[in-house]
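Hey forum,

I'm writing up a methods section and want to include a predicted complex as supplementary material. The small molecule is zinc ion. I've pasted the protein sequence and the SMILES. Can someone with a working setup run it? I'll credit the forum in the acknowledgements.
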Amino acid sequence: MKKEMEMLLKLQEIDYQLGELERSKDYLPDMIFNLEKEIEDTNRELVETEEELKNQNLEKKSLELEVDSLNQELNKFQQQMKVIKTNKEYDALTTEIANRKLKISKNEDRILELMDSIDELEEKSTELKKKKEDVDATNTTQLETLRKEMDSVGTKIKMKEDERKNVTVRIEKRLLATYERIKKGRGTDVVVAVKKGACGACYKSLPHQRIQEIKMGNGIIICDSCGRILLWTGE
Ligand SMILES: [Zn+2]
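Reply by user p_vandermeer:
Happy to help. Structure tokens for the complex are below, copy them as they are.
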């Protein structure tokens, strides 16, 4: 019986590993997707920030040029002011001057806003460049490992299945059927160790006599409560 129990434990270990491999077929693509997405998102954010920075610098430059030419006009009107002859001329010039002053003031306000915003964008761009460097390096390494793992999952499953066959042929048919039935209903925990005088899976406490039987290992003892195979590991 001890030999059979050993085989069952071996089978259970293989089934754990097969379960992990099957699960990895789901989570590996997710992990790969997320790592790739992080690289793309960081890159896109950097490109967008740089683009915005470029646009704001262009806007600032153009406003500054406009202020220069407005100042020249203003200067010209102020010179004309010294030689005017009529009230009508005076009124017209006053309007032109007020007009230019208002525009200059508006442009200067916007330039100040842009200067603040450009400072922030430059800071953000520096941070993003650093982040991109980190993300590129870390994620590329991880992706390499994960893609290799992904490529080998199929082969690993095939190998485990062969290994499983080699074990199952060495287990008595009825015992194997019992194992498969429990596995179907309970999942991967089929053979469980006795812990603190109770079933290690459902924690139902076991009578002293039962524990003795399990210790002896003379037969397959099933937990009354959860139906799993009980094993003595010398707790
Ligand atoms: Zn149990």
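Some notes you might quote in the supplement: Residues 87-168 form the longest helix (82 residues). The chain has two domains: 13-170, 177-231.
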